[in-house]
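STRUCTURE:
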């Protein structure tokens, strides 16, 4: 490669934050060093930000990874503080992040960097990751139906569909938006994507580029519900402050705040109040998912899931008060999906439950006739009829 070609190679800063995970860190580091195209298509600056580890991390870095830039915080600052420490020390034109228990797939940078180089107006590119749970099949996230390109700020207000390890950011974007919010102990990446996307368009590149290992002892899994709601509310309120005070944004702000209230409602009664105060949110898939989850959670705990579901659906209908044709349609879709989920859940049970499942599936179709084309529901109804005839 001649000097001119070498000069054109972009430098990528790969920042790994770690805290007392000496047994996992090498796997993360190896996945960064295994990136295809490194040294040929791009240069790689590997930075490990040690968030005041007390285990053998310093020894591992010194003995096995001398080429990495190892920086150590004297005092634990949390993941946001460690990332900011790494960012301040980095020099790359592009920046990408990795946690110490996750991995990049070998083609990540080779696939994503050309997108950023072809589109200088874009602040970041993101892709999918494999969500890996113990003893479960890994799934791609986000689903293609949720992924967005362009000015994604408003879409991100309704929920984060990016994972830290899937994103590569243009360095100059950080100069405009600032670094990670160290007061946030979770959702700090969502906060960052909102700030970045307010100023820059994003591009989505389909395909998984990393594996996110969901740990059963992850701190965020054990955060009290009210604390988690407070953190999400902080992220949303920070983002909404960037919008001008204008009637044009009134509905968007209300919707963003309502999503948090619905997602973290502590009781079913509170969930119904949120629906009653904001009935038009029934048109959103996320609202339907939250309500559906509440009904399913309560119905499966009772001896009479059909009766419970019927009562709860009546309460949903009263809360939404479907006065317009459009609202009736949204409500019907929500109720149909509730009954369909109950049907699928009951279908895996006893013969009596199979008959109940057929009843629930019939209700789903009555609410939304297009479910006639759903072969899963059709099979549930057939099995229920056969079970009844045998009984």
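SEQUENCE:
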């Amino acid at each position: 490669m001649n000097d001119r070609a070498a000069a054109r190679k972009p430098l990528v800063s790969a920042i790994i934050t770690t805290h007392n995970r000496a047994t996992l860190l090498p796997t993360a580091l190896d996945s960064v060093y295994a990136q295809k195209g490194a040294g040929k298509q791009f240069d790689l600056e590997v930075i490990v930000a040690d968030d005041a580890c007390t285990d053998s991390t310093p020894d591992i870095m010194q003995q096995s990874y001398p080429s990495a830039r190892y920086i150590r915080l004297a005092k634990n600052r949390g993941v946001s503080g460690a990332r900011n420490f790494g960012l301040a020390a980095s020099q790359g034109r592009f920046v990408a992040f990795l946690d110490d228990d996750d991995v990049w797939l070998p083609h990540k940078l080779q696939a994503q960097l050309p997108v950023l180089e072809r589109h200088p107006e874009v602040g970041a590119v993101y892709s999918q990751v494999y969500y890996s749970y113990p003893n479960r099949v890994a799934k791609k996230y986000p689903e293609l139906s949720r992924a967005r390109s362009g000015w994604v700020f408003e879409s991100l207000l309704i929920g984060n569909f990016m994972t830290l390890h899937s994103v590569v950011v243009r360095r100059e974007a950080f100069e405009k938006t600032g670094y990670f919010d160290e007061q946030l102990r979770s959702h700090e990446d969502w906060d960052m994507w909102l700030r970045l996307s307010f100023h820059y368009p994003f591009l989505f590149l389909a395909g998984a580029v990393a594996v996110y290992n969901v740990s059963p002892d992850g701190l965020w899994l054990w955060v009290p519900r009210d604390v988690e709601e407070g953190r999400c509310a902080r992220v949303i309120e920070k983002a909404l402050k960037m919008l001008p005070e204008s009637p044009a944004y009134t509905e968007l702000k209300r919707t963003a705040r309502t999503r948090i209230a619905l997602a973290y409602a502590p009781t079913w009664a509170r969930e119904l109040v949120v629906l009653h105060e904001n009935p038009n949110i029934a048109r959103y898939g996320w609202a339907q998912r939250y309500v559906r989850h509440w009904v399913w959670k309560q119905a499966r705990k009772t001896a009479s899931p059909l009766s419970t579901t019927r009562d709860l659906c009546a309460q949903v209908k009263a809360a939404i008060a479907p006065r317009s044709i459009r609202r009736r349609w949204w409500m019907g879709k929500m109720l149909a999906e509730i009954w369909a989920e109950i049907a699928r859940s009951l279908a895996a049970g006893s013969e009596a439950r199979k008959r109940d499942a057929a009843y629930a599936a019939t209700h789903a179709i009555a609410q939304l006739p297009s479910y006639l084309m759903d072969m899963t529901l059709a099979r549930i109804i057939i099995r229920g009829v056969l079970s009844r005839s045998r009984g």
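REMARK: The first helix runs from residue 3 to 8.
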